[in-house]
Design a protein that fits this description.
Largest sheet: 5 strands, mixed
Shape: globular
Distance between the termini: 109 Å
Radius of gyration: 26 Å
Number of helices: 24
Helix content: 55-70%
Number of strands: 7
């Protein structure tokens, strides 16, 4: 006699257990990417904290951002490090997102670590995008890791907090949501990205045009139009209104017309002034250092590269060289576009060129990222790690520097050398010496300086003074209004007691 055994229950349980187990245990590629991301985050979080506490950050731009957010947290708006209204400097309403942390006592360490974590989280949308494009977990993890291993991404942490750097991950998330046609989340990430700085709107404009080209015409064109309108409202209306008819950045574009309207006029009347910048050797080297750590794979996705094109053009059109290097935040939106294009480039190779081409493309990204990290980056793995990017482990002046800051005993107005400004920037008035006696990098070119009688404290490191500033310091101290309250090796703090009447008079 045969006995039928019903094992359907056992089979169902085994299937459920297999599904649960598969979901509970991440793929080894995910674990590897998570480990790399954690190590990267911890490494650079430690380094940025060391940089601030080692007195290796400066007023431009750590002091600017720290004072700006502190001012907003205390219902003030004129940022004296730069000599501009907070929103006359840049359109960064994203500052308000971190204001609550400043109510609780946050400062540069919080901003810098926040930026490191924000950058590290960029691996998530990149990995998910690669998986959506049917790339294997290992390939997806490699491409996401390539973003962190690019030397520019690492230099963004070294340069410390900048709003457009924080916008990279929201921009990556917006692109991912667009590819999934998750439009509510797309709108959320777009608004978050644009809130950090006005020129991010130009990248989102290009993203909108890309969405329109891919078939979602209404959403794409609305996104592009709204983003362009946001940028123009600030660049053409609000900045001039706040800054007395000027745009704060027009000085570095004087060679191509200065303002947005001037650039358009130059394009038609003197196009050679534009092309000479775009095709210069500096611009070529900048492009090389952007593309090489991605193995040039992003060229396989040229439409995605358009997202970073406006920022690239703005960088190469300036009169200054520091916008055309990967060590500074000006490359942030370019790196975001290149990271997305590297994923789309490998996906293109898989769809159109076959398995071998896919492996070659992934190998190019991996080898390019490895080369960039080892040869050009500021990480502990780099050959240039000891080239002065980070403060030394032992600094014989550190105790004297700390004593210098401790000698400032109230929140009165300070004029300090640029290397000490970020240590004292959480106050209503702080100037980079020789401001406000002599206007230097203050306000819009040609604006009158503020009344020096506002200043209660001088905080000076003589080693960074040029001859003109040193002579000015000697003259100020010679008048006898300031009393030296601390003096160390090449360091001094001088105080001018101010009663209420004098304080009011100085602010007139």
């Amino acid at each position: 006699m045969t006995v039928a055994i019903d094992d359907s229950g056992a089979t169902a349980r085994s299937r459920l257990r297999a599904i649960t187990t598969s979901r509970a245990v991440p793929h080894p590629a995910v674990l590897g990417l998570a480990a790399l991301t954690a190590a990267w985050t911890i490494t650079f979080a430690v380094l940025v904290v060391r940089r601030h506490h080692g007195f290796w950050d400066v007023g431009f731009d750590m002091g600017i951002h720290d004072q700006s957010i502190w001012l907003l947290a205390h219902a003030h708006e004129f940022m004296t490090v730069r000599g501009l209204d907070v929103f006359g400097h840049h359109a960064s309403p994203g500052y308000f997102l971190v204001v609550p942390a400043y109510w609780l006592g946050a400062g540069p360490d919080f901003l810098n670590v926040f930026q490191v974590v924000s950058l590290a989280l960029g691996v998530i949308p990149l990995y998910l995008l690669a998986r959506d494009r049917r790339l294997s977990p290992w390939v997806a993890a490699t491409l996401a890791a390539g973003f962190l291993l690019h030397p520019a991404t690492q230099f963004f942490t070294w340069e410390l907090f900048h709003p457009e750097v924080v916008a990279i991950t929201p921009l990556l998330c917006a692109y991912l949501c667009a590819t999934r046609q998750s439009w509510k989340w797309f709108a959320f990430w777009v608004v978050l990205a644009i809130s950090w700085k006005e020129d991010i709107a130009l990248a989102v404009m290009m993203l909108g045009l890309l969405i329109a080209l891919r078939g979602n015409r209404r959403i794409g064109l609305v996104t592009a139009a709204a983003s362009l309108a946001w940028f123009l409202v600030w660049a053409v209306i609000l900045f001039p209104a706040i800054n007395g008819g000027h745009v704060q950045s027009e000085g570095i574009y004087s060679g191509v017309g200065g303002s947005a309207g001037g650039m358009v006029e130059t394009l038609f009347n003197n196009p050679g002034a534009i092309t000479s910048h775009v095709f210069s050797s500096e611009s070529g080297d900048f492009a090389w250092r952007l593309f090489a750590p991605f193995g040039f794979v992003p060229v396989l996705a040229p439409l995605v590269l358009l997202i970073g094109l406006p920022q690239f053009l703005l960088n190469v059109l300036t009169d200054v060289g520091w916008t055309r290097v990967i060590e500074h935040h000006y490359a942030a939106l370019c790196i975001g576009a290149l990271a997305m294009a590297s994923v789309e480039g490998v996906a293109f190779a898989r769809r159109r060129l076959g398995k071998v081409a896919t492996l070659v493309a992934v190998g190019l990204v991996a080898s390019g990222a490895g080369f960039g990290t080892l040869a050009w980056g500021p990480s502990p793995l780099s050959a240039k790690y000891e080239n002065g990017w980070w403060p030394p482990a032992i600094d014989p002046r550190i105790d004297a520097l700390r004593a210098t800051i401790a000698a400032v005993t109230n929140d009165g107005a300070v004029s300090a050398v640029y290397g000490l400004v970020p240590q004292l920037s959480q106050r209503e008035e702080i100037y980079e010496f020789p401001n406000p006696w002599r206007s230097r990098n203050f306000g819009i070119e040609g604006e009158p300086r503020r009344n020096p009688r506002r200043v209660e404290w001088l905080v000076i490191d003589r080693t960074v003074l040029d001859a003109e500033a040193a002579g000015l310091l000697q003259s100020i101290l010679g008048h006898g209004h300031f009393t030296i309250v601390y003096q160390g090796p090449d360091l001094l703090v001088a105080h001018r007691p101010m009663n209420a009447k004098e304080a009011v008079s100085g602010r007139q």
